[in-house]
Every structure is written in structure tokens, then in C-alpha cells.
């Protein structure tokens, strides 16, 4: 019979063991080895059966075992040490508290998914893992973040394979009472909730759950509450599930409901209100609208409120292609805002204007969440240097008249949370070398450019460590492969061959990620004969472990998985290549350390960052990757190999795959495998070990999430907080009125005349030209603008590269025609073809950059030619 109601019955912990409950509810255990070791000692078999989840463990330990532990003085002593360590961790001063600059009192960080631990499966891929690592690193640094997300009742799907190798999806129900979260409650004990207005007088209500991530609270909204109708209860059913309107409701709940949840949390706990709001991708962009509505309620008009909100908002884009951005039909968005729905104080047309693609090439009837994020955030960034460049080009239509390199989108390269992803064996090796505390600080706070202590580790120790990690992976793979084949319907008698799958002494390659087409899961299958030769080489064999999920609606991705699974099922090679279903954090934490090579072969430049190779590198794994994302930025031959790309415009997709697959095979055959198997005088692969050593020494400090969060604090959060404080109600009114006046006057801004002290077409290096410019400012004054000379080398099309901007100064008042004269020196500091032009930009002390408003005035083409603005 089926139960009509379900309860979670927990044991009552004896008083002496009460700290176990606090330790289980703070997710620091997921990256703190001593805490996990303590829970493991409670009941090692149950710990393994629970998948290393302390909440599930404490829910299943027999009362008799708990009584035993109260009599175990050794256990109680360890419990006290771990309890005190957590108290010091969450309350003591850390990096953030030691800074002398004026930093934000709090930062709210919004993301649609968070990958904290496999015990809280609220993530699908890199975006969520990155968000989880961001919170953990912020906690380690003492940065006062508040995380905001949704609590999905089914999370992301679990993956298995049919007998034919086709991906199967399963959506297990997650009971919040069995997860490491607690409900946020009002003072009278009732559950804290937020509510959104829906069309037709309906409401969308959500309960607030709290997950404690070290020092960082993570607020998660759950719409599965009794007060909601059936449709509303299902809003937080699945991560990235449902149709367009379903996604819109999720994103409204995340952004608008998320701000309301933050306000509720701060009211109930006394936590400082955030000065900075950071939206991780466009999904949470509606948070800006809610904050505008708050300020309108305080007496600001829309334009002033918009300026105040922009000042304190940071927007991070992770998407290198327009197709990856959430876009909604304008009518769907309009229906959910305004007088009969949410945010009635804001005119619907103003809401739509923030997200419409009103630039050349845009779709006029689509509401673009990334465009809204950029319009509502004064500071924006991509997630690697290359991705920053791609983003500036992709969104350049929002800043017409500016070259892509001047588009105000910077970059902060992603990092990974080392304590989560570094194998315990790697940590212990570092601790033996420099001590446990110094190793922990190096992996969390970072700050050094090199880990020089790695140079002192003996070659034999490094090689023995790599062999231990590889052997652990082999055993893990066999267990998972056996379970997968049983799910596919195989009987025990069919599976004896699995005991011979993989070899702990063979060069091991890992490839694990989501399976959209651009990541090219099956590029390795392009020439199957060559791949078979690599796998079965008599002297230098390789073995490959592959994992990944395709989106449930992506049949193309599922076909790629099936193609690879069918190859891996071939009895000739199945001991050398495996596909493991249900890729997640638990699998990843075994996979990264155990591989010798981490393979990544996306279509460049479609990988925004790609952090899996970073996690592998921290464990001494070498990267073999296309120069995309972070690898384009930090690749050196010391750290691995770069797969050449065939990305010329004359190369079609099929030919490109053929060329790049050939380059991949060549590298493996001629350089990678020979170096792994080559032995020096001591019988060790000396050159390989040296690459591992250099990877750890030089690359390790770069890829840390601690480094990433410190960059966010120093380059984005601190300036945003300062701008937020400067935008008082009065200043916001002033800035909004000034912008309105400048926009109205801008059509009459002109560059009328340009002359230089030298009229020749050549000049000597070091020469200084005197520029004199005559401009028309219409109704504006010199204080409203900056007149600049822009100079640099020019190409064959007279485009200025590596431009230097030199401000010019007004030399007298307006003449009889109302024109102003500006002058200034221009130094010819480089040889070769050189050119300059003149432009006028808006200028105000509260602008973050001259390009912020997207307004620029330049000379007419005929004026530029007459002025002789090129010197060759």
C-alpha cells in the first residue's frame, strides 16, 4: 500500500552529542576533512551508505550507537575540537575583516543554481558549481555574502542508460526535511514566506529555506506550499524545466522574490542589508526591478531609482553565444507586470524597455534577460579574458559608436574552491611539506603567485601520489560501471569483464562536462581506427573515462552520448574507454584527481571559462585543451598541451572537426603518451613529473576561487558599494536629470574643426603635435562633456588599435556662433602608421565610464579627411 502522508522522523540526540546537529547543518563539513572524518567515525558503514551526508546519517543511526558515543571520551574530545573550530571559523576575523579599504557591509549573490555538495542537489553544471565555489570561497575569506536561489523539489535529473545506450532521465523527489536546510521562521514560529502577484488576482507564495555555507547564509525559495494552487506549487519543481512561462515565473521568483527574501532574512536576523547585488547570469535580473519599486515607495521617481539601483549592481555573464541567453516574448512579460500583476508602481513599458533588443540585429519582440542585466548593472563582467572580449563584441550594440574594446564589460576569470576539489591525499602531501595551516591558507585565501614549496617534494613522492589517485579512480570506475550495466539490464554472469576495466599504470584521460554540441563529446571518435590504436598501443596505451549529461530536451546531445556509449561497449576496447552515467559532484571529486590528462575540445571561442580543467590541475593533472576560456589565458607548455584550432572563416564545421581531431590524435601519439611512458635514470618519468610540479607551482595559485572572490571584492564589489553610497536620493535625482538633459541635447553636439601644428604626412618619433579643436555643445556646457583625442596605430582600413585617449582642455568661452575651442598636446610615441581622431563623450562624476551612456560625437567623414588625421 502507498502512504498518504510522509514524515521525516529524526532521533533525539543525547545532550552530549547536540553539537553534531550544528555540524551537520553547516555545509562547511562538505569541504572540511576533520568534520567528515568525525561523522564517518559515528558509523562507517552507514556513512558510506548515506553517500557521506551527515543529515541522513544522523537520521538513521540507532539509539544504542548514540548512547555508546556518549561514553566514548575520545569521540567526545574530537567533537569538542571540531565544534570549537567551526565556532572560530564562523566568528573570527578573516581576510575580509583585515582589509583597510572601505568594503561593502554585505553583498547579495543571486544564482538559479548552487552546487555546494552532492547532498544538496540543486545544480546542473558549471554555472551552479561556480556559484557554490563562490559562496565557499567568500566564506573562507570572511566576505559577507548572502546567497539567494531556488529550492527545486526534483533538482536536476538523475541519468541512467538504456540497454541501447540512450540517456534516461529520472526525477527523484527531494524532501527539504531530509536535506541540510532549515526553514526560516518568523518570530512567532510560523514559516517565513514571500509572495508575488500573478495575473487574474492570483498569488505565487514561497517558503524560505536556509542552508548555512560556512559563514554564508544561502536563502532558497520553495513554491511547493499549501497556500498555492497546483500550478504555482510546481514553479520550483525542476531546474531548467518547463516552458517559457514556467521559466519566467521561476526567474521572477528568483529575482523579485529573492530580494524580498533577503529583506526578510535581514529583518529577522539583524544581518546588515546588502549594499551590492550581484546577479550570476541573467536569470535573476528582475531583482533590479524590485529594488527600483522599493525606492519608488520611498519617494524617488523611476529614473532616479534606476540610477540608484544601477550603482550597486554587478552583472556577470557566462554566455558566449546569444542562443544561450533566456529570452521571452514581450507579451508574456507584459502580462506579468503592471496594474493587474506584479510591481504595479512601475509602468509596463518601462519594464519592457529594460530588456528589449533595440539595437541593430536584435529581435524587436523579444525580452532579453542578459540585456536587462546589463542595463540594470553599472558593472558587468565575463568569466575569462577571452570571454570578456567575446562579450564586449556580442553586446556592443548596446553602446553604439564605441569600439568593442571600449564596451564597459570587464572580466574576472573563474576559479575553483580548492578544499572541495583537492583530493585528501594531495592536501596531506602539502601539509607534510609546509604544515596543515599554511596549506589550508594557500588553498583558500591564496595571494601568492607561486607555491614554491612544491619544488621540495621528491619526484618519487609525486609519482607515488599520482599512482594512488589513479588506482582509486580505477576502483571507482569499476563500481560505477557495474552499477550502470545492472541498470541497463545486464545479469551478474555478464559482467565479469568489468574486473579488468582500466589499469592503474596506464595513461588516463578524463573528459566530463555537459553535452551541448559545441563541447564536442564525440570529437575523439572522428577517426575510430586511430583512437583504437591509441587505446590498444602495445607499449604506450591510453585509457579514457567519459561522463556527462545532455539536456532532457536535447535529442542531439543524447545521440552523441549514445554514439560514444556504443563505441565504449565494443568488447575490443571496453577495458580502455568507459562512459559513466549520472555525472555529479560525487563522481567529479574522484575523477579529477585520478586522471593524468584532462581533455577539453570545445569549438573556440564558445567555452566561456570551463573550470573542470582547473580542478584537475589542482590535483596534478595536466590539461590537453583547445585554447578557449581560461586555458587561452594561462596556457604554457609547462602545464600541458594546446590543441590547434582550425577556426578560419573559410573552414566549414565538418572540415574543422576533421582538422582538430587530427591535431588531437597527433598530440596524443607523438607528445603526450611518449612523455608519460618515457623513463629517466631513476626509472621515473622525470619530464612528466616536472610538468606536474610546474602545474602545481605556477598554475595552482591562479585557479583558486579565493583569488577570484578577492578580485570581485577589489574590482567590482568595493567600487559598487562606493557608488551605491554616493547615490543618495538627492544625487540619484541629480544624475537622472543630468542624463535626461544630456540625451535631449546630444543630437546637437558636433566636432566642427580639427587642426594640428604639423600638416605633413610624416613625423619623427617623440614629436608632439598641438591639436586645436572647435566643437558645438548646443545646450550643454564644458562641464557636461569631455573632448578627447584618440590616437594609436592604424591598420589598412584606418582603424585605430591600442588607442590612447588624451583629454583636451577648453581655451576660451563660446564664440559668436556658440562654438567652443579645445586644445592639447598629442605625443607621437610609436613608429609606423599612426592616426588620431577627436570625439566628445558625456562626463559626470557619478558615471562609471565615459561609455556608460552609449553616447559619442565624432567628426564627420569629410571633416576627418580634410584635417589629415592619419600619419604614415
What does this structure look like?
The chain is 39% helix and 17% strand. The radius of gyration is 29 Å and the shape is globular. The C terminus is likely disordered. The protein has 29 helices and 28 strands. Strand 19, helix 24 and strand 20 form a beta-alpha-beta unit. The protein is an alpha/beta fold and 872 residues long.
Describe the structure concisely.
The protein is α/β, with parallel strands linked by helices and 872 residues long. The chain is built from 29 helices and 28 strands. Helix 2 packs antiparallel against helix 6.
Q: What spatial form do the alpha-carbon principal axes imply?
A: globular
Radius of gyration equals 29 Å
Q: For this structure, what is the CATH class of the largest domain?
A: Alpha Beta
The count of helical stretches stands at 29
Helical coverage, percent range? 25-40%
Distance N terminus to C terminus?
A: 88 Å
Uncertain ranges = 866-872
**CATH overall fold name of the largest domain:** Rossmann fold
**Main sheet overview:** 10 strands, mixed
Helix and strand composition category: alpha/beta
The number of distinct structural domains comes to 4
Number of strands: 28
Strand coverage percent: 15-25%
Amino acid at each position: 500500500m502507498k502512504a498518504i502522508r510522509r514524515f521525516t522522523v529524526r532521533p533525539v540526540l543525547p545532550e552530549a552529542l547536540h553539537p553534531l546537529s550544528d555540524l551537520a547543518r553547516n555545509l562547511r563539513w562538505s569541504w572540511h576533512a576533520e568534520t567528515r572524518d568525525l561523522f564517518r567515525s559515528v558509523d562507517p558503514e552507514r556513512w558510506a551508505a548515506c553517500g557521506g551526508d551527515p543529515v541522513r546519517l544522523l537520521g538513521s543511526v540507532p539509539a544504542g550507537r548514540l548512547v555508546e558515543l556518549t561514553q566514548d571520551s575520545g569521540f567526545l574530545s574530537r567533537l569538542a575540537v571540531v565544534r570549537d573550530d567551526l565556532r572560530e571559523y564562523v566568528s573570527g576575523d578573516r581576510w575580509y575583516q583585515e582589509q583597510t579599504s572601505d568594503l561593502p557591509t554585505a553583498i547579495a549573490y543571486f544564482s538559479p543554481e548552487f552546487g555546494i555538495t552532492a547532498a544538496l542537489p540543486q545544480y546542473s553544471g558549471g554555472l551552479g558549481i561556480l556559484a557554490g565555489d563562490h559562496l565557499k570561497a567568500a566564506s573562507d575569506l570572511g566576505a559577507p555574502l548572502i546567497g539567494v536561489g531556488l529550492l527545486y523539489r526534483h533538482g536536476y535529473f538523475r541519468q541512467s542508460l538504456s540497454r541501447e545506450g540512450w540517456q534516461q532521465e529520472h526525477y527523484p523527489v527531494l524532501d527539504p526535511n531530509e536535506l541540510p536546510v532549515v526553514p526560516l521562521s518568523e518570530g512567532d514560529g510560523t514559516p517565513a514566506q514571500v509572495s508575488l502577484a500573478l495575473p487574474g488576482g492570483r498569488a505565487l507564495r514561497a517558503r524560505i529555506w536556509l542552508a548555512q555555507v560556512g559563514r554564508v547564509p544561502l536563502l532558497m525559495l520553495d513554491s511547493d506550499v499549501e497556500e498555492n494552487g497546483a500550478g504555482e506549487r510546481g514553479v520550483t519543481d525542476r531546474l531548467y524545466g518547463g516552458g517559457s512561462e514556467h521559466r519566467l515565473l521561476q526567474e521572477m521568483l528568483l529575482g523579485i522574490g529573492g530580494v524580498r527574501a533577503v529583506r526578510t532574512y535581514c529583518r529577522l536576523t539583524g544581518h546588515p542589508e546588502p549594499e551590492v547585488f550581484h546577479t550570476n547570469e541573467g536569470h535573476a535580473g528582475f531583482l533590479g526591478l524590485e529594488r527600483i519599486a522599493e525606492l519608488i515607495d520611498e519617494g524617488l521617481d523611476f529614473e532616479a531609482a534606476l540610477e540608484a539601483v544601477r550603482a550597486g549592481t554587478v552583472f556577470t555573464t557566462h554566455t558566449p553565444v546569444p542562443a544561450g541567453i533566456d529570452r521571452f516574448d514581450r507579451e508574456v512579460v507584459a502580462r506579468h507586470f503592471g496594474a493587474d500583476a506584479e510591481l504595479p508602481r512601475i509602468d509596463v513599458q518601462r519594464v519592457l524597455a529594460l530588456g528589449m533588443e533595440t539595437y541593430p540585429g536584435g529581435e524587436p519582440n523579444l525580452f532579453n534577460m542578459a540585456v536587462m542585466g546589463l542595463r540594470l548593472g553599472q558593472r558587468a563582467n565575463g568569466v575569462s579574458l577571452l570571454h570578456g572580449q567575446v562579450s564586449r563584441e556580442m553586446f556592443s550594440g548596446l553602446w553604439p559608436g564605441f569600439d568593442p574594446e571600449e564596451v564597459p564589460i570587464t572580466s574576472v576569470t573563474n576559479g575553483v574552491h580548492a578544499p572541495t576539489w583537492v583530493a585528501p591525499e594531495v592536501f596531506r602531501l602539502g601539509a607534510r611539506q609546509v604544515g596543515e595551516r599554511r596549506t589550508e591558507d594557500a588553498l583558500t585565501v591564496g595571494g601568492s603567485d607561486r607555491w614554491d614549496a612544491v619544488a621540495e617534494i621528491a619526484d618519487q613522492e609525486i609519482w607515488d601520489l599520482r599512482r594512488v589517485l589513479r588506482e582509486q579512480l580505477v576502483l571507482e570506475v569499476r563500481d560505477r560501471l557495474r552499477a550502470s550495466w545492472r541498470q541497463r539490464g545486464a545479469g551478474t554472469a555478464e559482467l565479469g569483464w568489468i574486473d579488468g576495466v582500466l589499469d592503474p599504470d596506464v595513461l588516463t584521460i578524463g573528459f566530463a562536462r555537459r553535452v551541448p554540441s559545441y563541447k564536442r563529446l564525440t570529437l575523439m571518435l572522428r577517426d575510430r581506427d586511430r583512437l583504437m590504436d591509441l587505446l590498444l598501443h602495445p607499449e604506450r596505451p591510453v585509457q579514457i573515462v567519459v561522463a556527462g549529461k545532455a539536456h532532457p530536451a536535447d535529442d542531439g546531445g543524447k545521440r552523441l552520448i549514445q554514439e560514444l556509449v556504443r563505441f565504449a561497449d565494443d568488447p575490443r576496447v571496453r577495458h580502455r574507454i568507459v562512459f559513466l552515467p549520472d555525472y555529479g559532484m560525487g563522481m567529479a571529486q574522484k575523477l579529477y584527481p585520478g586522471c593524468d590528462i584532462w581533455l577539453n575540445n570545445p569549438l573556440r571561442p564558445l567555452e566561456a571559462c570551463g573550470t573542470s580543467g582547473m580542478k584537475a590541475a589542482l590535483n596534478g593533472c595536466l590539461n590537453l585543451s583547445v585554447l578557449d576560456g581560461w586555458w587561452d589565458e594561462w596556457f604554457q607548455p609547462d602545464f600541458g598541451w594546446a590543441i590547434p584550432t582550425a577556426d578560419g572563416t573559410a573552414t566549414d564545421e565538418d572540415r574543422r572537426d576533421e582538422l582538430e581531431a587530427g591535431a588531437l590524435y597527433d598530440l596524443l601519439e607523438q607528445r603526450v603518451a611518449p612523455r608519460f611512458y618515457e623513463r629517466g635514470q631513476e626509472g621515473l618519468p622525470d619530464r612528466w613529473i616536472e610538468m606536474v610540479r610546474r602545474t602545481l607551482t605556477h598554475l595552482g595559485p591562479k585557479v583558486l576561487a579565493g583569488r577570484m572572490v578577492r578580485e570581485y571584492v577589489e574590482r567590482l564589489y568595493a567600487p559598487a558599494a562606493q557608488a551605491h553610497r554616493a547615490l543618495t536620493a538627492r544625487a540619484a535625482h541629480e544624475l537622472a536629470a543630468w542624463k535626461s538633459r544630456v540625451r535631449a541635447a546630444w543630437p546637437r553636439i558636433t566636432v566642427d574643426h580639427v587642426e594640428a601644428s604639423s600638416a605633413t604626412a610624416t613625423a619623427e618619433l617623440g614629436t608632439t603635435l598641438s591639436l586645436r579643436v572647435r566643437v558645438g555643445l548646443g545646450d550643454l556646457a564644458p562641464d557636461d562633456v569631455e573632448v578627447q583625442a584618440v590616437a594609436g596605430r592604424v591598420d589598412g582600413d584606418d582603424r585605430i588599435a591600442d588607442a590612447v585617449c588624451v583629454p583636451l582642455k577648453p581655451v576660451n568661452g563660446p564664440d559668436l556662433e556658440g562654438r567652443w575651442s579645445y586644445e592639447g598636446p598629442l605625443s607621437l610615441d610609436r613608429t609606423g602608421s599612426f592616426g588620431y581622431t577627436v570625439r566628445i563623450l558625456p562626463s559626470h562624476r557619478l558615471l562609471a565610464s565615459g561609455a556608460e551612456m552609449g553616447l559619442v560625437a565624432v567628426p564627420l567623414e569629410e571633416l576627418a579627411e580634410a584635417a589629415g588625421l592619419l600619419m604614415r
